[in-house]
Structures are given as structure tokens and as C-alpha cells.
Amino acid sequence: MAEHTVLFDVAEQPVHVPTGTLLSEAARLAGVELNQPCGGQGRCGRCAVQVKTGSVRSRSTLRLSAEDVAAGYVLACQAVVEGNVAVAVPPQEKIERRLTTDRTVREVSVPPGYDPAQHQSIRRLRLTLSPPTMDDQTDDWSRLKWALQKQMGRGNIDISLRLLRQMGARLREQDWQVTAILDTPMWDFCPDCPARLIDLIPGHVPDEEPLWGVAIDIGTTTVTLWLVELISGEVRAQVAEYNRQIARGEDVISRIIYASKNGGGEELRQLVLDTINELVERACGRVKADPQQIVKATIAGNSTMMHLLLGIPAASIRLSPFVTAVNEVPPLTAAEVGLAIHPEASVDCLPGVASYVGADITAGVLSSGMDDTEKVTLFMDIGTNGETVLGSSEWLVTCACSAGPAFEGAGVVDGMRATRGAIEEVWVNSRTYEPSWRVIGNVKPRGICGSGLISLLAELFLTGVIDKGGHFNTHLQTPRVREGEHGPEYVVAWGSETAHGRDIVLTRVDIDNLIRAKAAIYAGFTILAESVGVPLEMVEQVLIGGSFGKYINVEKAIHLGLLPDMPWDRFQFLGNTAVLGAYRALLDRTARARIQDIASRMTYIELSADNRFYEAFTSALFLPHTELNRFPSVAQALGQSEAVAPEAP
Amino acid sequence: MAEHTVLFDVAEQPVHVPTGTLLSEAARLAGVELNQPCGGQGRCGRCAVQVKTGSVRSRSTLRLSAEDVAAGYVLACQAVVEGNVAVAVPPQEKIERRLTTDRTVREVSVPPGYDPAQHQSIRRLRLTLSPPTMDDQTDDWSRLKWALQKQMGRGNIDISLRLLRQMGARLREQDWQVTAILDTPMWDFCPDCPARLIDLIPGHVPDEEPLWGVAIDIGTTTVTLWLVELISGEVRAQVAEYNRQIARGEDVISRIIYASKNGGGEELRQLVLDTINELVERACGRVKADPQQIVKATIAGNSTMMHLLLGIPAASIRLSPFVTAVNEVPPLTAAEVGLAIHPEASVDCLPGVASYVGADITAGVLSSGMDDTEKVTLFMDIGTNGETVLGSSEWLVTCACSAGPAFEGAGVVDGMRATRGAIEEVWVNSRTYEPSWRVIGNVKPRGICGSGLISLLAELFLTGVIDKGGHFNTHLQTPRVREGEHGPEYVVAWGSETAHGRDIVLTRVDIDNLIRAKAAIYAGFTILAESVGVPLEMVEQVLIGGSFGKYINVEKAIHLGLLPDMPWDRFQFLGNTAVLGAYRALLDRTARARIQDIASRMTYIELSADNRFYEAFTSALFLPHTELNRFPSVAQALGQSEAVAPEAP
Q1: Distance (Å) from the alpha carbon of A116 to chain B's nearest alpha carbon
Q2: Considering the domain A116-202 in this protein, what is its CATH number?
Q3: ipTM of the complex
Q4: Which of A304, B575, B586, B600 would be A252's cystine partner, CB 3.0–4.6 Å?
Q5: Which residue of A has its CA nearest to B136?
Q6: Taking the domain B212-349, which CATH number applies?
Q7: pTM
Q8: Partners of residue B336 in chain A, C-beta under 8 Å
């Protein structure tokens, strides 16, 4: 087969590929990163590149305008090399890497009563062994094991071959004085279960020396890592970064598709490991800790993220009947997983419940405390999967409603993630229909993030720019409502006001996507409540997790019919509950056992097979809902109308 | 530092090394294998090479004659490169690789009453799982685990990350019909201890399909491997090969020294793995089995061999107070150890007792049955370490007496291993002092192996060629006794009769080495008997293990004072008891537990710190012994004298 030369303007070297190679594959070989939020399915249009010379065969030009196509733009994931080509990569597709971290740091206090001796599974023991003599020729491992058993009061102890190889030298280096680090995760539950030796340090390490662990939440979008000192329980550094997998698919479905391609799974595994390992470096750098001294990691994340991290095929998650390969991952070590911390560090992947209710939710339930209160509680993670849990200390039911990534800025023309340049809140004048907005970082806007979209949609509805079906009122006297390339649209910002010089708009298609997303979430928790016979009014608190949820304006979310109409004081935003749960599990064996208990107690309700869900979803495809009596406060607001924009900040 | 070129005549390429590099190191880099039986200490003289051009600095020329030195011979392990050199490797030092296997195959029968369902820790279960549906979205691993638990009646089950990655595809390949292979080593003893999943095979594997395991004995000289079908219990192939580590030290001490050098440990580990993996290939080739289908290995071997196999530093074994790093190796997998069988195969390294009483002895005791009889039994492994066990089902004591490698042909001028061309038995005419001999393979002799040395020494003693102190009677009328380069010697074969054209002799120094070896062994078991207050006469049976032992002539060994003077019918030669013990442990969980029990019951007596041992050793430095009354049958034979040579075979 003929070989062709492909030269990317941003690459150092051309690459040589056979006829039929995708441009996206050639880019990968050339080390050129392209955004592929849809996972290379040709659906999102984000991998568009411009062919300067030579020709390619383009399977699809979806989302490209006629002008784009005329100018030589193709979708890299749909264009097949047929000869030598030179390709330009548009600068706007350069991948954003750095997260604005000020949004991710939070105050965390050590749980009251935390006592490492009581709660921490990691133990650090100082031992003084009697050296072997001709009268006591006990082998090193038995000598060490007996000393450990004596100090711990019991126990089987596991040692790895790696540590066996180092043991003799470590014991002798400081004359049979040594500090042992062990993990005893099952200490309280299984007296016969072995403790595991993680490290042997020559000499006696003083108590003041920090003992390090990390709590990690692998989000589809963002990976969050807390560096924790395990004796004090203090969080010493908080860092977060976009999951590098984003460039290979913006949502879990796209990632699963990408992972199913040849080598895709391994590539995604490496990308998330790179993300985590860089975060470890960054967190350690802040407090001058050595990553090799981190001896324990707890990991939360949705089921897809967990599978991809571990290199376990995730295809069955996407296909009916939607099952994971594994919900409860066995205990692993850092070396097995590929984390750049102490190779023998315990890696505890927290348990999930189902394909779309993962360890991020079980950890979130723990940190929300809903499993420990008599109050009937609704716990929600407003995101692509719309995971929802209803219950109390007595019972727990859960579901996921495939909301789609609209609230995360995907599937919306000018949607973007909640980062610098994103419009995060909007007010629309009810007479002039002119908007004002607040932008993250106080810069010129580049797009609209989830909270901004909710805010905008609610404002457009209350001011009558759109009706309850989401249709534009095209009779309004305003240049803001116009006919765009894809139908009617509202101009949020004119090109003169934006960072990139293009108008920022919300289209009819965007609105449909947003309404479908909110309808799915609303239908999810109503069906959940119905299935256990608990009317929504009986819900005593609504806890909203997920870092996105933190920025939602409750009033506007109720106006849309995204959240149920309840007194505002029943709502509480908890931020990233997943990493908080991982932190609790990192500190406390009992908390870890509680997550296990939560996972096994949760009854999972599959909505995709449920006709009631489909009906509830259809009824919710209106603003706020077909049945306005479910939303008395919105009915009242619609009566008053006229939302007034505050002073622009 | 200056670089020099070193060219070996047998190498394809020259190598470039800095000033000060040892020639032996240069040889290693060039891929030239040199014999280094002493481990590179400059003691054995076997790594002699001839420097053709250029110069080296020679630290020691021990064991080289003045003529050798004049001809440019140096010891590769003692010669330091100082300029460009060309080196010739003498052909006689080419390393012997192939073992005459006819000596290693034996009849083995399956233990009576062997029932895999009862005894075998490996279980093969055929499962038919109900596929997941929208009403049963159990994750794959729970689904599989529950089916396994149901079929096994109980249990915790461990799965590796490697298998988790393959599980989903394996389950679906044959429509949720699958065959699981598990190891349940602790089944009888610990109900909570997990079974370990080794493999998942799509479809239902019929019972007739073989299930493979291997029993391995890693000897210092020879590695023996039996390929076993685990359901029938039958040994389907027996193979053996020289341990490739031999070229890096002939005895354990030399190996430990070599391993302590930079990279030496890893090199030795790789050499023994190469040996084992080649044996696996060979055994599987014979019965058309796939090495990847071998799911369990049990390994016996002395403590040094076990440490070197696992890459665990063995230095402390050699140095007072002589302790191992580990006597009881934790359960491992083939991937961890580096065996080229199924990566998840269980690798069970059998437990040892002390630095010089290893798993070869505990396995040997099991297969000898001495731990299960009321008869007072003496079990001996006549070799370098002279391991000896005394006891019965009631009690067991053990010791090792550093006999040195004389009986293995090392430390003796014309000594060699028991292979083709070795004189294995000798008769000396009591009037003419002319010898006749039997050679392994019926070829011209190249040297004398251990059994030949015992035979020769006994004959020389009984015919009066040497006296009880091992001194030559130089007044005899025979050209066979002469003054050699290193003192008086006996010519066993004239150059005209030998394969290499040189005389084969036994020197005064050789005789001293042999007497010291037999004295150490005799002193060992007498002190053992003394220490428990059991007179040697009370010993009801003497069981001799080790493949070497099989060929000893009891009468002659008693004449020398190597074995105690007892009726011949109390002696029994068991051959390689270590591999037999490993085989029993491979088949039977109970046998494996018995080895554990043997290891923990055995009281180890350290002789090197024992004055009584030194006295007993000194008294035994005569033929047969200072106290002739201990050897009444020898006294009688000396009275009759006149040993008559039989017809040459």
C-alpha cells in the first residue's frame, strides 16, 4: 500500500502513513493533539483542520459550514489520507490545559474526634529487633514478622517480593532499628485478614515526620487531588486539573467509544495517569513532600473513569443492558495501577453501584451524611449522568438519568466549561430584552458555562423571549432575537464585546438540548420518589454535589423546572462531594466501611427501561413543566413577570 | 578514563571497556561464557584464558603453572585490562550444557488414593452464567464471583487486575459459558482465606483436557522439572539440566559471592530462570502441552538457590551468624517470579529451615516418609552442605556440615560431575595395584565423579596404597604411585587411555579434601545423634537422598567411614527426594501442609559453633576413623585384605 507524507504546521516532523489513514490518527502519530470531544465520531465538529495542499477523502462534514468546506476545512476524524498533504491546525482548537484553580480550593476541616490510632488503616511502627546470633538464627522475615505481630497484638502479615528483596539491607542499615509502614484496612472486621507491609525505613522515623496519603476524584472533566497528612488528618494541598482524556471525548460515552478503538483504551489510561501523576507532583511540590512517600490513595470517580483508569474494557457500560465489568475493585498497589507514588502504596478504588452510579456517588452520599440522618434527603449530581439518590439512614434508592452534557457546555454552540472567559450568570431586561452578564475572571466572554446557561434560559423564559415550549417569540422588537444559520437564536454578546470577535448566541437547538437535559433530571428524581411512594413534598433536604452544582442559582433552576419547587432553605450546595468522600475514606476505616455499606444498600433503579420515566420525561419537556401546579412559585413569578437586571458587577 | 578494545577469539564482536575492567567482565559484555566455579574469587583456576596480544595486569596466578604464565595464561577473574588485548578462550573451558538425561528419569507412581477433588488445590469449574438483562444489571465480576461461590459452597475470591481486564470478553465469548481455574491452597485450614482465580477460559473445557502443573527442584548443580497432569496426578515428562549458574560458581558460597557483585544477583536470577524456562519448553514439547497452560508450580531447592531465584540478596547466608532473608516465601505468581508459564500460575516455593537446610530437605523428608514412621531414621543428602536429619514421627533434628564440593568433583584435580566420560567406579588389584574402572557412557574417561572418588579412595585404602591417614605408601613396586607436581599421586588412567590424552590422577591434596568431606558428614550425624541422646546403633534406617547418593557403593562408603557401619539392608537410596517432595506438594494440599509442619517441627543444630562437632570432625579425619571399633566390618575387611577386581564391565 502506498505511503504518504502528512505535515502538520504545528508538528516538528512530517509523518508517513499508508493510504486510508485517518487524519486524526496521523495527528496522533505526529504528536499533534486535536480536540475530539465526541471521541472521533464526527459528531461535534471540534477536530476541524484545514488541508492546505494535497487531498483527502472526507467521509462527513457535519457541523462544517459551506464556507469552511470551501476553504479546505475537514473533520480530522472523518478525513482519510489519499496522498501527500499539508495540514493547518486552527489555533482555537489548541487544547486548554490549565484549570483556574481558585475555583477548586475549599475549606476542609479534619473530622471532629479524628484519631489516627483509632481510625487510620495505615500504621507506622518503630521496631528495635534483636540482631541474629549463632544462638538465634531466625530468618529476617520471621524476625521482622514476629516483632510486628508483638507490637500490633495480632496478625497475619503480607509482604511483597519487591520488599523481600530490600528487607535485609533495610534491617541492617541502622543496626536492626527500623520503621515499618503497614496497611490494615480490615483491622476492625476480619481478625485473620492480613496486614500488608508497605515500606521499611531504616532507623526510627519520629512521629513529627508527615505520613502522606492522597484522595482523588477522577471526574470526566476535572481530576481533583488532595494531599493529606494521615496522622493529623489535615489536607495540606488541593489541586485540580482537566482530565487529559477530554481531548479524546468530552463525555463518558465518547470516551468509551474511543477506548474501544485499537490502542484507544491504553491511550486513555495513560492520559488519566499523566493527569493524576502531574497533580501528585504539583501537590507535593507545594509542601515539599516526596511523591515516593505517599503510601495510600483512595479514588472516587464514575464507573467509566474507574474502568479507564484501570485499563478494564468499559464497552458494556454503553450497551444494553448497561453493566460494568466491576463495581467493587479489589485492593491494588500503586505499581499495579501506574500511579507515581510509593510503588507499594495501597490504592483503594471506592465501590460503585451501577454503570451510571459510580464511586463518585457512593463517596458523595457518605460525605453528604444522608446515609446517617433520619431526614428524607434527595442527593443530586447535576451533570451528564444526572445521578440522583433518595433516602435516609433507613433506605436508599438511586438512579441515573442520561441528561447529556448540555449543562457542561457541550452540545451547545457557544457552550464551554466553567473556566476563565465563561459567562456564568445572565440577567435579561424584561422590557428591552438586553442582557447583562458576569464572566469568570472578569474578562471578555468566550462562551457560556452550565450555570450561565441555566440562568440565561430561565431569564429568557420569564421575560417571554421564549415560551414554555422553548420557542422564540419572533415578534419582539429586539435585534437580539434573529434568524441564524441553524434557525432562530438569541444574541447574548455581540462580536465587539467578545474575546474572539464572534457573536455569542443561544440557538433553538441549544434550547432543546437544555430542556431535554433538565427534563431528564427532573423526571429522574420524580420517578425515584414515586417508586418508593414518597411524595416530593416529603423531601426534607436537597443536597447538590458536583463542583458544577455549586454555582447554580436555585431560584432560576426552579424557574426552569430543573429543581423541584421547594423553599430555598431546603437546598444545599456541597461542591465536590466525591473527593470529600474519598478524603473521609482515606482517613478512616469506618468511613470506608460505610461507603461499602452505602454501595450495597443502594437500590438501583434502571430508568431507560421504565415507561414511567419516559412519560415523566415527556411531561417535563416544558418550562417549567406541563403541570404548572407542580411549580407554584414559578406560576406566581410568571404572573408578576419583569425580571430586573441588577447592576452589572 | 581511557577505553580499550578487547577481542575474544570466540566472540563475534570486540568490546570496548575502560582501564581497570576485569577480563571476566569484558567476557560477559562480549557474550563469552567462562567457567567461574569459584564465583570469580581467583581460587579455582578454571577461568584461565590466554592473552595473545596486548597486556593485562594480573592480580593473582593461583593454580597456573609457570609454563602457563609464560604462555600468556591469566585468570580472567583476576586480570585487569590496561590496553587493547586479544584473548583466546581454551576449548576445554567451553561450558558443558547438556545433561545425560538417562540418569535422571525415574519411575514415579501416583500416590495411592490420590483424588483431585479431595487433595488438589487447583480447581477447574465449568460455569453457565445467566446473562445480564435490564432486570439484572449485576456487574460481571459479582456475577462470576457469585456463580463460583455457589459452586464451591463458600468463599472469598481474589482476582488480579490482569484477569479483570480480560474477564468481560472471556465471559461473553461463548455466551456466558466459561471454565474457571482457581487455586484454593488454604481450603482445609482457613475457611475465610480467599481462593485465587488463575484463569477464565471461554466455553466448557471437558474433564479429559489435561490440567498442567510442574514440580521443580533447583539444585546447585542440576535443575529437575517434572510436568504433571494434575487431575490424574501422572508425571508426563521428566527433564533435567545443569543449572546455568554453574558457570558463575560451582557451589553455593561461590554463587553468593558472585551475586554480591554489581549486577551479579540479577545475572544469576536470569540464568536459573533461563534454565527452568528451557526445561518447561522441553517438557511441554514432549507431550505437546502449551507452557501457558501450566497453572501451578511447586519449587524445592536449597536456601541459596531459592534466594537467587527470587532475586533476594543471599549474602547473610554466607556470613556469621548465617541467617537467610526468608525461610517461608509467601505465595507468588509466575509473572512475579519470571517463570514462562501461565502468568497467574501459583508459584509455591516450599519452606526451608535454615541457611543450609532448605526446602530441598523439607521436601525430601516428606517424600522419604521419615516424618510418618515410628522407626528412628537418619536422612542424609551427601553433597556440599551435607544436610542430615535424624528423627521419626515424634521428633526431628537437623544439621548441615559444610563438607565442601569434593564429592561433587570440585576441589579434586581430575574431579568432574557424574556425566559422560566420568569414572564412576574403580577396583584396585591388591597385588599389582593396577586399577580397573567403569566409565559413564562406556567411553574413554575424562575424569572421576563423586561415586568414583569414594570407590577409588576405599580401594586405595583397603589395598594399602594409602594408610589410614591418607598418606601414600611410596615403597610399593608400582609406577601408579609417583611424585607429581603437587606431591605424591596415584595414576588412575594413563594418557593413552583417556579422552584428552592426559593422565588422570588422584593427588595427596585431593585425598585430604575427600577425607575432610567424609569426616564432616560423619561428624555431622554423630553429633546429631549425640545431641538427642540416641546412639547410632538405634538408627533403624538410613535414607540417602540427592541424585548423587544413588550411585554410592555402600560397602565402600562404610570402608571410608563416610557412612556408619551398619547392616547394608538398613540403607536405602532414594534418588532426588526433593523433586519427589515437590511433586507430592503439587498434587496434595495435605502433603503441602505436612512440609510446613516438617519445617516448623525440625530443630536445627548449628554445628559451626559447636566444639563437639570440631572434635568429632578431627576424630573422623582418618580412614575409616580414629576409633576403629566404630567400624567392626572394616576392621574385619582390613584383616582379610586383598580386594579382587571383578571382570571389567
Answers
A1: 28
A2: 3.10.20.880
A3: 0.87
A4: A304
A5: A321
A6: 3.30.420.480
A7: 0.87
A8: 161
